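Chain and conformation:
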Amino acid sequence: MSSTSFKGGVHPPERKDRTKDLPVEALVPFTKTVWIPVTQGGAPNTPIVKVGETVARGQKIAESDAFMSVPVHASVAGTVKKIETRLVTGNMDALCICIEADDSGATVYMPPLDPFTCSREEALARVRDAGLVGEGGAAFPTHVKLNPPKGSKIEYVIANGAECEPYLTIDARILQEQAHKVVDGLAIAMHITGARTGIIALEDNKADLAGVLEKAIANQRCNPVGAGACDISVVLCKTKYPQGGEKMLITAVTGREVPSGALPAAAGCVVQNVGTLKDMSEAFRQGKPLIDRGLTVSGSACATAKNIEVPIGTLVGDLIPANITLNPGVIKIIAGGPMMGIAMKSANFPVQKNTSGVLFLSARETSLDEEGPCIGCGRCIRACSCRLTPVLMMRALKGDKLDESKRCGLMDCIECGSCSYVCPARIPLVQYFRLGKQKVRTEMQKQAAKGVK
């Protein structure tokens, strides 16, 4: 099986060996308490429970009427102890609902729903009611992604199993252990969108999973109502970062390119993380909302690297030291992968729907070099998977020239970090671009408030 790819990218050390063969362990915090962020993707939610109430696992506890929102559910059965702000991913304070488990095991799931005989509207409602979001990092509401703008024709649904971030192996373990659910979720997504072709995309460092997936595809029973749900195949992509980016993956497996400023639907594609597809299958077949999250815990400062599944809202610190043991010399804690993840100021933050990993890094795994002067070497241009000019974007931003930075492609940057990785001057390019984007959005909001288009 040949491998496909995209132009640009980098090859950071994979560092997946410690966890790639470890099965997923189900863990719970030793405190029996979870802190569930009220909003985890999409528009802001409002709590619909009060302190002192008893809730069941799977019960809706926060929601919004906004189309771009997804509800949040209780991940444990117990009593609501607090509703207050606390540290979450991104080092921000956000409103969270604290639930103390009572060991009752009470659950409130939705009734099972046949995805191939219900209406499209019912299927989309189930996806939203289950609180499904993209689990690869962005937490974009899944029901919105499966319902593209009118006039869009979806031809491909791509299951993103590339998992190109170093250290992380949770997606590979999901494919290894629950391939049948991923294939079922992919068939459901194809049916909802009307796509006739499904592709499970893997990097070729996970070629051993192809046989497992092809067996699951062969066993998938296609309902005649679900046109095209049998046309599913596995495609290998070259192991290269950021192969798992939506636009990169679409180019690699279909040869198509997403236009500047457009969504994948403009190229006839929908891309879903394999974990999202697994949870989509459970939402229809079991009526289970998204209340558990699988993630990788690794890094050389972690003595007990693992793939785990925990109730959403579990504080990472509440797994230490009962389940996770750390070595001396933790220099950095990262929520996510080392390329696009966020450095956290402590481990006392909750696991969210889009938490793919938590890394405890030592000094030898991190760069503490100070920023030097740009020498105009052009390495960032060669590495950019979006074919932008990071050096010119950075210079424009340093000169406070927002329009020039946008002309050079600022708003098309996916913040993958490839440019920062190859920069010999150790310039934190991605940080400049994130701040620049925020300035652009702030300016747009000011113009909108003035009624200026």
User: Anything to note?
Assistant: Residues 379-449 form one domain.
